[in-house]
Amino acid sequence: MRRRAASVVGARLGVLVSSAEQQAGLATTSSGGLFGTAGRLPGAGARVGGAGQARAAAAVPAATAAVKVQPSLLPLTRTDEFGAVSILESEAEASFVPQTFENVDGRRIEDGRYAAFTKDLTEVAGVPATRQFTDKVRTFAYGTDASFYRLNPKMVVKIHSEEEVRKILPLALKHQVPVTFRAAGTSLSGQALTDSVLLKLSHTGRNFRSYTVHGDGSTITVEPGLIGGEVNRILAAHKSKGKHPVQYKIGPDPSSIDSCMVGGIVSNNSSGMCCGVSQNTYHTLKDMRIVFVDGSVLDTADPASRAAFLQSHSKLVEGVVALAKRVQADRQLANLIRRKFAIKCTTGYSLNALVDFHTDDPIEMIKRLMVGSEGTLGFVSQVTYNTVPEWPHKASAFVVFPDVMSACQGASVLRDQTSVDAVEMFDRASLRECESNEDMLRLVPDIKGADPMAASLLIECRGSTEEDLAARIEEIHAALRKSGLPFGAKAAEPQPLEAYEFKHDPRDFKVFWDVRRGLIPIVGAARKPGTSMLLEDVACPVDKLGQMTVDLMDMFQRHGYDDAFLFGHALEGNLHLVFSQGFRTPEELTRFHTMFDELCHIVATKHSGSLKGEHGTGRNVAPYVEMEWGTKATELMWELKELFDPDYILNPGVILNKDPLVHVKNLKPSPAANPLVNRCIECGFCESNCPSRDITLTPRQRIAVYKELFRMRSIENRTAAQQQRLDEMAQIFEYDGQDTCAADGMCQEKCPVKINTGELIKQLRSDEMAEARRASGLAMTVANNFSTTAWAFNKLLNVVNVAHSVLGATPIKAISSALNKATGHMVPEWNPYMPKGAAPLNMNPPKPAAAERGVPRKVVYVPACVTRIMGPSKGDYETAPVHEKLLSLFNKAGYEVVYPEGLSASCCGMMFNSRGFKDAAAKKGSELEAALLKASENGKWPVVCDTSPCLAQIKSGLSDPALRFSLYEPVEFIRHFLLDKLEFSKVRDNIAVHIPCSSKKMGIEETFMKVASMCAENVVNTNVPCCGMAGDRGMRYPELTGASLQHLNVGGCSDGYSTSRTCEMSLSNHSGINFRGLVYLVDEATQPKAAAAAEKQA
Ligand SMILES: Cc1cc2nc3c(=O)[nH]c(=O)nc-3n(C[C@H](O)[C@H](O)[C@H](O)COP(=O)(O)OP(=O)(O)OC[C@H]3O[C@@H](n4cnc5c(N)ncnc54)[C@H](O)[C@@H]3O)c2cc1C
Ligand code: SF4
Ligand code: SF4
User: Fold this and answer.
1) Which parts of the sequence belong to the 4Fe-4S ferredoxin-type domain (predicted)?
2) Which of 365-369, 387-391, 869-873, 1074-1078 has the lowest mean pLDDT?
């Protein structure tokens, strides 16, 4: 389907290419073109380019056949032990085996320096062995980033503080061991990778996560481990707490902002849809703390530190000043730098620092040079941002044009003549996705059947007041009307501009922006198994954007990239190119290399653009820095690097690299290992939601290791070394990958392609259990005798509770901990908040008056096995079980309670499912479903389960649709059925709430907060995505909940509420306050409406 569309586009594209050429005054040359065929690699389209060649390239008539690679022109390649593929320069390189250490990727062999560094790391820097990782799983997993490159670090060190970095860098210098810093690893250009030592500041507990908001929020000081989105949430909370008039946010707004960290945002000079150039880190930076390679620190906010630095580092300072003087005296070079940074540019260093400041202000220059330096000049340990206002009034319009040139001209008009906030361009391929979206069709009906080269602009406008917003919208309308550009998705059916009105309702403009955000995942999800999704990021002066877009579309077509999407921040001339690419065969490698070389010529030479607008140079365009910047500026960059890091210790090979083929080396394989995870694009967006991120692996890392295991298992005739690596990885993965996965699926919530890594892990557990027949048989016996099991557990809890009272906490903890270890985590570890056995369920609850009066109010109540077994903990003032509280609520609201048949033996099946006992889980699930169908008279009555995760499990396993709309967990039931029947009053000042991950996945976070707020003045959300309890897993692997709940925030409250008894136990254990079911609070805070009214009258 897409191929057919591509050929239609091809015909239209031919017209546009030549019209673009005519506009540019370029001659059209013969077919075939300079890049029309692949050459023997390396050397295909060698980067000596020149404007003439590039022009010729772009003049190639469109719809020429995709590049066919001749077998005789295939490159030499090599695959390393990690599966990474490289294109090689020569036979000599192919057979080269390094004998001595060279500071080049693949040649950093251990000649004793790593051992010496490790020794000093422990003895001098004091980094404990528990934070040094050299095993085959952790190095591989932690080494993975979002780029399509693979380098495997020799060692990963989880760093904890600036102080530690100050000790480590001099050791690296002493032993000549290169180091690379790692924040969230969402970089796309290969700058966060190394085959040497990776210093990881992310997922190291609460380290590097401090902040201070200043005044009204117009400045904020942050550490590099905070996620960008978190910083904005901190600013939002600061505004609402201090009742400040203006909402501020940080300027940089990469689309990865909810995953990437300050360290990466600063070091890549990231930006996004609204920030443009003027609000990126370079322009909104106030101050910075920098650790240099010798371990010294400069705090630019501290006059004493500045003065000391000027003295102690006079050589560096004088060097920077000399370079600045040279640049400022060279008008041509200075103008080039100004021109390049007028648009988005992250290729090379931030040379604008050398022209934007007076030469007597070297600190200001050094501070700005750090921005976008990708960890090659120093470590950023703290940043102070001048924040920018987040105006409250917004509106967006989706304006369609019959061709992409007109759309880009529209962007240029808006940039030159208005103060518009964001303009995003969609090409025809992107529009095709809109055509299949019902909400989009409702809002922009004429996109259906748009012309083959149609394009659109998504325009956003913001204002401090409604009037301000209206004035800005009018300004945009006036400019577009005056432009004389055609509007409408079809040239033959022109539309007035008014057809694309600004939408003020957030529900409407959310549709536009959701489609925009969904464009990257679409390619990611639709690509063929075994290929990777590539995301290129180019920019050019906005008046050339149309031409560049057409040239790139033509290029993709000729090279057979039929799935390429082009879209991006048109206001800044910034275009994202998303397409799939395999690195499995020499043909695929050649196609990529040839296309990429042409891409660089089109962007850098023909359109004087940036090869990287936002994503950073990395290894990806390092060989093309000179093509983009010219020799003089590139030499300046090398000089800069030598001033800051003369020994090439800091992330060598990134930004500047002498290897002309570094961009086609160490390419990451993407084996099609399992349909559950093949779509993974390794973006890392899921990582911050994962409860095991601080102790073992994240979802991305689980998938990466799983795929690597698959790749190695697929190798026929493995060598002894390969077998040994496979065995070691498989063994470590059991604990790191499988045992410590909570299988809660919270990763899916942040995954752009909706992967639930927990499903993969459950499948692995299930496969294992299928082999372990005895265990499966035992599980089935437990399932068949569940009422006895539940009764026994209830009694056991009381026995343990008595033991706690008699013996005290210490011996019980010691005994249970020993048992836990001895049984391979089968016996749960005891904690002081372990519940007592729950009092028995009242099987004959009183018939409420309302029911007796004949009002048909019935509810089917299924107390989860966990609430039938577990009561409150020993130290809680509450002694009643959850079911007693819920029965009280039903009674107050006049509900007659119906229990499902066979309640004492019922279970949703989760405890079996999470362990991989699929058959037992299915059996219990279907038994319960049948009982609920009967009790609810096929869904006539609402069904309430008092434990959110169990309700989610029941919902996910339904086979009969009759119950689909009748199932409620407590909070949803309260919202739908009790608000009109009960009078609420606020009975607490401050409470903490933890919303279980299952509730978050069901989308009831807001409802949870609303119900809690009806019972208390101030409600603090713990903000922990998942506590890691996962049924009883957190009791059997207490380190999992320990790691997750170190981020728990109870804001000084003395009571906490949730809707899962096991999670509550764990939350209590890690906060020191009692967490209990929200129904306890609601029961205390409510009375029947009638009674309340009578009370008021009296
Ligand atoms: C799907 C997707 C969409 C994206 N969209 C955008 C976008 O819209 N705009 C955009 O600009 N980018 C985008 N990116 C790229 C990436 O998310 C950003 O560049 C991000 O800011 C990187 O941050 P990080 O925390 O992941 O850094 P990392 O990848 O961990 O590191 C980035 C670089 O900074 C260095 N570094 C990290 N911490 C420090 C420190 N404390 N001191 C010195 N050096 C350090 C590293 O060595 C590395 O060179 C996207 C990525 C993905 C996967
Ligand atoms: S699982 Fe999803 S979010 Fe995680 S790395 Fe893969 S694609 Fe990204
Ligand atoms: S299921 Fe949960 S624990 Fe497992 S990878 Fe996903 S978020 Fe992490």
Assistant:
1) 669-700
2) 869-873
Tokens of 299: 């705090």
Provide mean pLDDT across the span 266-271.
Answer: 97
Domain match, 294 and 407 both: no
Asked if pLDDT for residue 4 goes beyond 60, the answer is: no
Q: From the CB of 755, is ligand 2 less than 6 Å away?
A: yes
The helix (H) or strand (E) run that includes residue 730 is helix 720-733
Which residues make Cβ contacts (< 8 Å) with residue 300, sequence separation at least 6? 287, 288, 289, 290, 306, 363, 364, 367
116 falls within a domain: no
CB 335 within 8 A of CB 267: no
| 380 Cβ closer than 6 Å to some ligand 1 atom | yes
The Cα angle at residue 1002 between residues 998 and 1003, in degrees rounded to 5: 120
Q: Which of 389, 423, 455 marks a domain boundary?
A: 389
Residue 781, pLDDT > 90, answer: no
228 and 318 share one domain? yes
User: Which ligand is closest to the CA of 707, given by its number?
Assistant: 2
Q: CB of 680 closer than 6 A to ligand 2? A: yes
Ligand closest to Cα of 753 equals 2
Question: pLDDT digits over 731-756, tens only?
Answer: 999 999 999 999 999 999 999 999 99
Helices 2-24 and 428-435: angle between axes, nearest 10 degrees: 140
Q: Ligand 3 pocket test: pick from 757, 910, 1045, 1047 the residue with the most ligand atoms within 8 Å of its Cβ.
A: 757
pLDDT at 252: 98
Average pLDDT, the chain: 89
Q: Given this model, what pLDDT does residue 836 score?
A: 80
Please report the pLDDT score of residue 543 as a whole number.
Answer: 94
Regarding whether 382 and 406 lie in a shared domain, the answer is: no
Testing ligand 3's pocket by substitution, the residue of 203, 693, 740, 746 carrying the most ligand atoms inside 8 A of its CB is: 746
For residue 508, what are the contacts with CB-CB under 8 A and spacing of at least 6? 396, 443
CA–CA separation, 652 vs 194, rounded Å? Answer: 9
Distance (Å) from CA 700 to ligand 3 centroid: 10
Q: What is the 270 CA–ligand 1 centroid distance (Å)?
A: 7
Kindly state whether residues 398 and 497 are assigned to the same domain: yes
Ligand having the closest approach to the CA of 374: 1
Q: For the segment 877-890, what is each residue's pLDDT rounded down to a tens digit?
A: 999 999 999 999 99
Name the closest ligand to CA 689: 3
Q: For residue 190, report the distance from its CA to the centre of ligand 2, in Å.
A: 17
- 161 CA distance to ligand 1 centroid (A)? 20
Query: Is the pLDDT assigned to residue 36 strictly greater than 50?
Result: no
Interval between CA 556 and ligand 3 midpoint (Å): 37
pLDDT of residue 268: 98
Crossing angle of helices 1005-1013 and 1078-1085, in 10° steps, is 40
Query: What average pLDDT does the segment 784-803 reach?
Result: 69
Asked if the model's pLDDT at residue 54 lies above 60, the reply is no
The boundaries of the domain holding residue 864 are 835-1088
CB 177, CB 197: distance < 8 Å: yes
